[in-house]
């Protein structure tokens, strides 16, 4: 029961946390539970959005992924923005052990 409730709490918490970022109208904002994907017009705007998310709650600090060779991991994909278009490919974390239950 606790795990199911944790997802609901995370969704509710993040919906409140993201309000100031959505008000800034980034080019793209996507979220799955507590994983956010944000595209802004400038690096400065991205920094402002990240600071807004991190300054909402004292004990909650988000981490930021940086692109590797222009590819950014998000969930089980990697995303690249090139010439105004998104390109995607499958992504597996290096810690993936390829175990199925």
From TrEMBL:
Organism domain of life: Eukaryota
Organism lineage string: Eukaryota, Metazoa, Ecdysozoa, Nematoda, Chromadorea
Record-given protein name = Reverse transcriptase domain-containing protein
**From which organism does this entry originate?**
Nippostrongylus brasiliensis
């Amino acid at each position: 029961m606790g795990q199911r409730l944790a997802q609901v709490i995370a969704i509710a918490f993040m919906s409140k946390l993201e309000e100031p970022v959505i008000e800034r109208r980034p080019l793209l904002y996507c979220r799955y539970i507590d994983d956010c994907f944000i595209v802004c017009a400038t690096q400065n705007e991205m920094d402002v959005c990240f600071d807004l998310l991190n300054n909402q709650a004292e004990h909650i600090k988000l981490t930021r992924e940086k692109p590797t060779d222009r590819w950014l991991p998000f969930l089980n994909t990697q995303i690249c923005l090139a010439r105004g278009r998104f390109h995607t490919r499958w992504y597996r974390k290096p810690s993936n052990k390829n175990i199925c239950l």
